[in-house]
């Protein structure tokens, strides 16, 4: 989604703006732009990559500026719609959606403002210009204008003749970077690590004034706000590509380390403890009668795996809801339900709204599993668990998913123990399996060369089916999502038993069918389903375990994972599917890390 970088400094800030936009590229965008004061308002915009904007900006110098990567919502990707948007001597960049923009546009057009773009953002620029007529102080005018905006947004504003920037947030992320040389703002910390580690996270409704000497923040109702300065733990190296070709590849190979970090507390712990989920967890978990998981996309798939675990091991009813549906559905609330939000970014607008919706209905036992400290979802829930996967830059989620699964396995076992459903021996067996997980994943990664060979056979296909059963069915869904997302091959995940109820009609020699075939209790059932495919001339690509009784034959290709991993088997089985998608995308030559139309951090509905 859109990314914002803003700077007011003692020296030329254009390189910082450009480098900040580069760091935000992973969020997904289709055009980029910046506006600086030197001393008049100077705007540059381009459709396409930040690199093209950088060429235009070469030689431009200024000490104050705002910059933006746009992910189109209102209006096609074009230079005309790219930010910043201007009204008189004032420029605005914006992330989010202004829901009442049509009404504002009509009102401002009637007042004589001429719109140059199709965006909702331009309405903010004209609204501000209009407000300045009655309220000439820019800071006060931004506050006043915010009261007129509906929706979720973060904005940065500059104006000719001013030596300050005004930024504000309501429902979309924005943080400040504080240094001796100046003040900065950005959509996430990665953009500002180049200048500082000291970050101030703005809260909803905050308006901040930034000058080269410092900053001040007020709340929506105008009271001075004290927001703590957080030292970012994000390593600058963590967002570098190193020797890898793509972030997705790097992140797939970082999974052993990411899992080790997420489960680090198990190293010194001889037993499972609810305190892994925070000091308040024993109170929040006590008396829980069911679990409701809220998430989107890949995080939703992690929730689907957890449903199998939570019901089987903890004996608690568990439902998993797509956040964008749940938030508008009239469901039946139960105060004794543990509401678990899963999100890599912690900023997904639908998941955030779904948690707020659950809380508004009296469900206050909330837990967020998230990869980003200080994110909106972390702050929204009573309990938090950080997955510690490290920054995930590739749009396709990989290490975030497996670390979410690790966190969910831990949660399952803690809940099971709290309900006296885990014997001491089983507890130790599960703990040993969790501790061994990084090593087990490392072995699976060694399958890459063979998967690369398989990938070549997918590159000219237009459709693919992914099959799984039990807690590997969500892994089939995830495999299909990965393939469609980065290789643009249409792919569907199905529970294998459902094949004959419809999708079998699609199977022919041109439809590769990928199957997750661990050596578990459902293997024989799955094999019958695979025979149905084979009998119709379908080409099967089977990811089995070392000891799964599945043999390769004409039209049946089999790759074996090193060992069957019981409860945690889905964590292992998703890895070859990630590698398959990655290599298919490579063969097809798509933009692996920034697939078309998609964004990393989905901060709009
Ligand atoms: C995964 O590959 C996707 N890019 C996407 O489905 C993602 O998982 C989804 O948008 C949810 O994001 P979140 O985990 O940051 O909430």
Distinct small molecules bound, one entry per kind = 2-deoxy-2-amino glucitol-6-phosphate
Q: Would you state the CATH class of the largest domain?
A: Alpha Beta
Structural class: alpha/beta
Strand elements, count: 24
What value does the Rg take, in angstroms?
25 Å
Termini distance?
A: 11 Å
Query: Mean pLDDT, nearest integer?
Result: 93
Number of helices: 19
How is the biggest beta sheet arranged? 8 strands, antiparallel
* CATH architecture descriptor of the largest domain: 4-Layer Sandwich
Q: Domain count, please report it.
A: 3
Structure characteristics:
605 residues; alpha/beta; Glutamine Phosphoribosylpyrophosphate, subunit 1, domain 1; Rossmann fold; 3 domains; 8-stranded antiparallel sheet; binds 2-deoxy-2-amino glucitol-6-phosphate
Give the structure's gist in a few sentences.
With 605 residues, the chain is an alpha/beta fold. The protein has three domains: 3-239, Glutamine Phosphoribosylpyrophosphate, subunit 1, domain 1; 247-444, Rossmann fold (3-Layer(aba) Sandwich); 448-588, Glucose-6-phosphate isomerase like protein, domain 1 (Rossmann fold, 3-Layer(aba) Sandwich), CATH 3.40.50.10490.
């Amino acid at each position: 989604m859109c990314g914002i970088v803003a700077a007011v400094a003692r020296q030329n800030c254009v390189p910082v703006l450009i480098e900040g936009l580069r760091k935000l590229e992973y969020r997904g965008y289709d055009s980029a732009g910046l506006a600086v004061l030197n001393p008049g308002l100077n705007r540059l915009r381009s459709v396409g990559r930040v690199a093209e904007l950088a060429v235009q900006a070469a030689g431009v110098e200024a000490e104050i500026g705002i910059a933006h990567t746009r992910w189109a919502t209102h209006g096609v990707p074009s230079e005309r719609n790219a930010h910043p948007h201007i009204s008189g001597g004032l420029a605005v960049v914006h992330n989010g959606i202004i829901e009442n923009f049509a009404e504002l546009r009509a009102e401002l057009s009637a007042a004589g403002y001429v719109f140059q773009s199709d965006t909702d953002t331009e309405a903010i620029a004209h609204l501000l210009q209009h407000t300045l007529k009655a309220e000439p102080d820019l800071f006060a005018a931004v506050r006043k204008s915010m009261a007129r905006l509906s929706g979720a947004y973060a904005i940065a504003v500059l104006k000719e003749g001013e030596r300050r920037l005004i930024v504000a947030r309501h429902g979309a992320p924005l943080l400040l970077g504080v240094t001796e040389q100046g003040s900065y703002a950005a959509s996430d910390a990665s953009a500002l690590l180049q200048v500082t580690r000291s970050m101030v996270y703005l809260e909803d409704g905050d308006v901040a004034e930034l000058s080269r000497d410092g900053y001040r923040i007020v709340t929506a109702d105008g009271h001075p706000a004290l927001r703590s300065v957080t030292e970012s733990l994000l390593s600058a190296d963590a967002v570098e590509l190193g020797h890898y070709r793509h972030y997705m590849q790097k992140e797939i190979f970082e999974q052993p380390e990411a899992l080790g970090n997420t489960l680090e507390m198990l190293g010194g712990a001889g037993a499972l403890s609810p305190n892994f989920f925070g000091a308040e967890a024993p109170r929040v978990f006590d008396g829980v009668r069911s679990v409701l998981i809220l998430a989107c996309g890949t995080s939703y798939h992690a929730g689907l795996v957890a449903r199998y675990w939570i019901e089987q091991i903890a004996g608690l009813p568990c439902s998993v809801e797509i956040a964008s549906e749940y938030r508008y559905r009239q469901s039946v609330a139960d105060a004794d339900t543990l509401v678990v939000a899963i999100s890599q970014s912690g900023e997904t607008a639908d998941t955030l709204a779904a948690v707020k919706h659950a809380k508004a209905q009296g469900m206050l036992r909330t837990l967020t599993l998230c990869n980003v400290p200080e994110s909106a979802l972390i702050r929204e829930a009573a309990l938090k668990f950080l997955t510690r996967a490290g920054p995930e830059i590739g749009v396709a989620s990989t290490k975030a998913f497996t670390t979410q699964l690790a966190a969910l396995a831990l949660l399952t076992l803690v809940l099971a123990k709290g309900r006296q459903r885990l014997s001491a021996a089983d507890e130790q067996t599960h703990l040993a399996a969790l501790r061994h997980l990084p090593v087990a994943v490392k072995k699976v990664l060694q399958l890459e060369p063979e998967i690369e060979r398989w990938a070549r056979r997918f590159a000219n296909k237009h459709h693919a089916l992914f099959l799984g059963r039990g807690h590997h069915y969500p892994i089939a869904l995830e495999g299909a999502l990965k393939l469609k997302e980065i290789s643009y091959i249409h792919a569907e995940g199905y529970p294998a038993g459902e094949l004959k109820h419809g999708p079998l009609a699609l199977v022919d020699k041109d439809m590769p069918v990928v199957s997750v075939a661990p050596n578990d209790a459902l293997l024989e059932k799955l094999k019958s389903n695979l025979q149905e495919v084979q009998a119709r001339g379908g080409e099967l690509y089977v990811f089995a375990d070392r000891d799964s009784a599945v043999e390769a034959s004409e039209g049946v290709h089999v790759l074996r994972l090193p060992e069957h991993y019981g409860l945690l088997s889905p964590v292992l089985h998703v890895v070859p599917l990630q590698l398959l998608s990655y290599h298919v995308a490579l063969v097809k030559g798509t933009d692996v890390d920034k697939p078309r139309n998609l964004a990393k951090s989905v901060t709009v509905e």
